[in-house]
Amino acid sequence: MSKLTKRSVDSMAIPAKGQIFLWDEELRGFGVRAMPSGLKVFVLQYRNEEGRSRRIVLARYGVLTVEQARKQAIMKLGSVASGADPAEERAQSRAAITIGEVCNWYLENAESGKLLGRKHRPIKASSLAMDRSCIETHIKPLVGNRQVRHLRTADIEKMQSDIAVGRTAKLRRARGRSGRTTGGPGVAGRAVATLRSILAHALRYDLVENNPAAGVRKIAAKPRTRRLSAEEIRELGKAFPIAERNGENPTGLAAIRVLLLTGYRISEVIGMERGWLHADKGFVHFPDTKTDGQIRPIGESAISVLTSVPQKRGLPLFFPSDLVDRPFSAVPQVLRTLCAIAGIEGVSPHILRHTFGSVAGDLGFSELTIAGLLGHGARGSTQTYVHLDEALRLAANRVSEKIANLLDGRDIAILDIAA
């Protein structure tokens, strides 16, 4: 046993199972606990007035330094000497904490970078934005006032079914061109997953005593099979000049065309910066995407659209808002207008992405190549051994050219795409 230091904590072994402790020789009861996950937390063990041994978690190592945790331990021991029982106080606080309070704690700590998400990295701003929307729109209205200790699996499954049938559906804003939250099985399943993750973080930090969402079975969302047929792509192409003459926003129209010609996610297109496009080499370098930084192929037809988009106010974005220095956010609304002109229903930005992948399949490209085109994360070791750079550039060119020809009505006599 020795005095705790950063070096001794860093060199502390990680157990294969169970937990191990490293205690400080100068401050009795102050130590570090290591767990198989690699998480290390500062702990304080003491005896209360009744002589009962109690242990509390002070903080995660990294959130506090060794010296900061030592000072906190000294303060806690001082309160114990005065007759207080920090473990009992914390237990009472945990017993009364509500789902809404846990959600607030999660958002505050995740935004400050204290909570780690995928691959043990701080949770991305885009993920937090979706989590916040889910919390405020679905979780808080249905179970936000419930205490965690009283929440049961059946309560969360009821929350899920209420979201699925649209109980939390509402207009996001009464004015403007914003969308509508309608609920549904997919949204309901994601809400359960979000709540489960939030409570898992809270459990790890000793904020709650259990995770009532851990055993909830998520509603299986229906697979998305909608795609644009060749005829629908042609009709969409005819709608573009009509929309332009009607005064539809040119930024939104250009973004839709790029979505269809690349298969990129909507967040990737509207957030794309001019410096990321390497037109001469046929790729876009995204510093950060849903599956981390990526180099993604892009066809010449899509490059032609991007290079023709005029730069606004010297901003680096290809598709900035007309009013503020942020990405253009009304693409879904422009797409609805465009589809209304074309007489097409049930089309979202994701349908454009699915259409791109489906056209790639129609042209005979493999699932592995299509996954690379769409920027899906590696799903197996095979991808490690396949050099796809040239194949992807070829595929991106062929698919974008095929779709561009359909949009411009130049491909009527060639292979039609099934609906």
TrEMBL record:
Keywords: DNA integration, DNA recombination, DNA-binding
Record carries keyword DNA-binding: yes
Tyr recombinase domain segment(s): 223-398
A GO term, aspect molecular function: DNA binding
Entry's Gene Ontology BP terms: DNA integration; DNA recombination
Pfam families per record: Arm-DNA-bind_3, Phage_integrase
PANTHER family recorded: PROPHAGE INTEGRASE (PTHR30629), PROPHAGE INTEGRASE INTS-RELATED (PTHR30629:SF2)
Name recorded for this polypeptide: DUF4102 domain-containing protein
Organism expressing this protein natively: Erythrobacter aureus
